[in-house]
Design goal:
The protein is of the alpha+beta class. Helices cover 21% and strands 31% of the residues.
Length: 75
């Protein structure tokens, strides 16, 4: 299941969450809690931050407007 980090606006706060997609590219789930950058090495932390910066380039999702799709496509 593909995923990426996205900025999600909820009640006036902007946070980064993991967002999961089905094969059709539709949102199927988001992480319950925001994600904090971390790494076991400084290099891993730098890599994690690159994913965060990529999230800032994508459109912001409004939590109360997200329509969740099924994880599997119906035949």
């Amino acid at each position: 299941m593909p995923w990426n980090y996205r900025v999600i606006e909820d009640k006036g706060k902007f946070r980064i969450h993991e967002v999961y997609y089905n094969d059709a590219g539709e949102i199927t789930a988001i992480s319950e809690d925001p994600i904090a950058p971390e790494g076991e090495t400084l290099e891993e932390l730098k890599d994690a931050l690159e994913y965060y910066f990529a999230a800032l380039k994508r459109p912001v999702l409004k939590k109360d407007e997200i329509k969740f799709a099924s994880m599997i496509e119906d035949d």
